[in-house]
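step=encode ok
step=design start
structure_in=
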């Protein structure tokens, strides 16, 4: 498909996203798209994302993949992935612009139901998203919800390598146990709490302390007091520390918090007007530039003692390469 690069829509830690405008009339089916690009030599994460999106392309709650290409721009070879354009921006943008106001509960329920459908689909195919958070949840002009950014997604199972964004990390991820579908359900609980309260589920400004609170002991994120009893119960089902006891996306689809909800239709039609600049939107002390580390002590299954052991290593690694905690220039992602 022949296209040219339009306005910048956003930037993540390794890729830039622009509007992609088709050149030819024959492209009328996709009037506007987004293109996610990075340097060809640094494209392994984007290639991973492309191959997973290609497999998951029939789910309306997952950002649609239209194709890929290489281009030469300003003397640099770029790898480009063409995606459905989500003109409503990200849920993070939406929360940011809401300021002190929170998202009304009926909307939280509808978004949650859509996210559950998307997660259930991802998990059915044997994948784990590994980085569900408001920046990676996109909205279409008609209120549809799309799960995006599969750069860290992987086949379920295996442990060891720490990936994701600390505020949304599950206890078993922190502990280095098997990273399965349950980790995405924990992250979903964090997103639900954030939608309902307007601020991240964990209030903690110290990375080591945060990882300890997530990985060790019984503490779970605070569940917003003004959520309905159904909403609180839903969040509790997501915040079961042992992943074996956590509800699955499929089970949660039948939870009273979401099962009566009619999803906004979120049709595939993309409107040509009404698009806006969306950008990475730091809102808390964990919004830092990319911080990479890979830990090589995978544990067989989740347990408190293994979590403590791993955290000691993790905090040491973090201390060596800790970013500037006082900066809020970007989001922290661990790859
Ligand atoms: N299909 C899309 N339509 C509209 N905006 C998009 C689209 N994809 C991404 N964006 C915007 O670009 C931002 C960055 O995209 P994305 O999260 O995919 O990049 P990334 O480099 O993988 O980020 P991360 O640092 O989280 O890994 C998003 O938060 C969003 O604002």
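sequence_out=
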């Amino acid at each position: 498909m022949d296209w040219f690069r339009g306005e910048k829509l956003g930037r993540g830690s390794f890729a830039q996203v622009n509007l992609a405008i088709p050149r030819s009339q024959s492209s009328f089916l996709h009037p506007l798209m987004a293109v996610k690009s990075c340097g060809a030599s640094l494209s392994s994460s984007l290639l991973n994302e492309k191959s997973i999106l290609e497999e998951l392309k029939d789910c309306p709650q997952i950002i649609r993949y239209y194709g890929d290409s290489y281009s030469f721009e300003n003397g640099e070879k770029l790898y480009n992935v063409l995606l459905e354009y989500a003109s409503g921006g990200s849920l993070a943008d939406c929360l940011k612009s809401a300021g002190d106001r929170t998202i009304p509960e009926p909307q939280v329920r509808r978004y949650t139901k859509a996210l559950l459908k998307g997660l259930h689909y991802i998990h059915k195919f044997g994948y784990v998203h590994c980085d569900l958070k408001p920046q990676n949840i996109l909205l279409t002009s008609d209120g549809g919800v799309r799960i995006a950014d599969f750069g860290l997604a992987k086949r379920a199972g295996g442990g060891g390598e720490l990936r994701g964004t600390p505020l949304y990390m599950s206890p078993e991820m922190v502990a280095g146990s098997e990273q399965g579908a349950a980790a995405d359900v924990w992250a979903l609980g964090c997103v639900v709490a954030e939608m309902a309260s307007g601020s991240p589920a964990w209030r903690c400004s110290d990375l080591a302390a945060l990882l300890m609170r997530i990985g060790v002991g019984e503490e779970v994120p605070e569940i917003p007091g003004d959520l309905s009893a159904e909403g609180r119960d839903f969040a509790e089902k997501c915040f079961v520390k042992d992943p074996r006891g956590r509800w699955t996306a499929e089970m949660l689809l039948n939870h009273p918090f979401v099962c009566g909800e009619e999803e906004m239709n979120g049709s595939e039609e993309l409107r040509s007007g009404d698009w806006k600049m969306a950008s990475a939107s730091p809102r808390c002390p964990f919004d830092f530039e990319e911080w990479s580390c890979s830990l090589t002590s995978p544990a067989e299954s989740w347990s408190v003692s293994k979590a403590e052991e791993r955290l000691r290593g993790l905090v040491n690694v973090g201390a060596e390469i800790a970013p500037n905690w006082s900066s809020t220039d970007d989001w922290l992602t661990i790859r």
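step=design ok
step=annotate ok -> The chain is about 30% helix and 15% strand.
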